[in-house]
Amino acid sequence: MSELTSSQRHGNVGRTLLWVAILLSVLLLGFVTALTVRHNPYYSDRAANGISKFRFLEACKEGIGQAEQLTTLKSVLQQTGQLQPNQNLRAEIAAEPRQLVQSVQTLPGGGWTLAAPANIGIRGQTAVLGQLGAQCVYDKAQGRTVAQLQLPGQQ
Questions:
Q1: What is the reported pTM?
Q2: Which residue windows are transmembrane per the record (predicted)?
C-alpha cells in the first residue's frame, strides 16, 4: 500500500489547522471591518440629523451648482461684458474632501450646516473666475437642503 492511501495517515490534524486558519481569518476580517466603520469620516447619525452626512454633502454640491445667486451673478457679468450671452456659470465647492467633511456641523434639534468656499467659472471651461462663500443648511423639520452663494456686498 502506498503512503498516500495508507490508513495510518493523520489527516485530521491538517483539517483542524485549516479550520482554525479560516476562523482566525474571518475574525480578523470582522475586526478590521468594525474598526473601519467606526472611523469612517462620513459616518453620521442619520436618525438624529434627518439624512446622512454623505447625502447632505451630495445635496449641498448639487445645490451650489444650481444656486439662484448664479443667475444674478450671470446677469451682472453679462452687463459688464465679462460673460457672453450664450455662456453659463458653474459653481463647485473648492474645499478638499477631508476639509469638507470636517467643516460639516450638526444643528441643534437635528440637521447639518456647512460653510465653504466655492469656485465660480464658465461652464465648459476649466479656468476659475473667482471664489465666493457658499453655505448649505439641512433642516430636519423641513426635510430639505438649502444652498446659497454669498455674492460680493452681501452678508
A1: 0.70
A2: 16-37
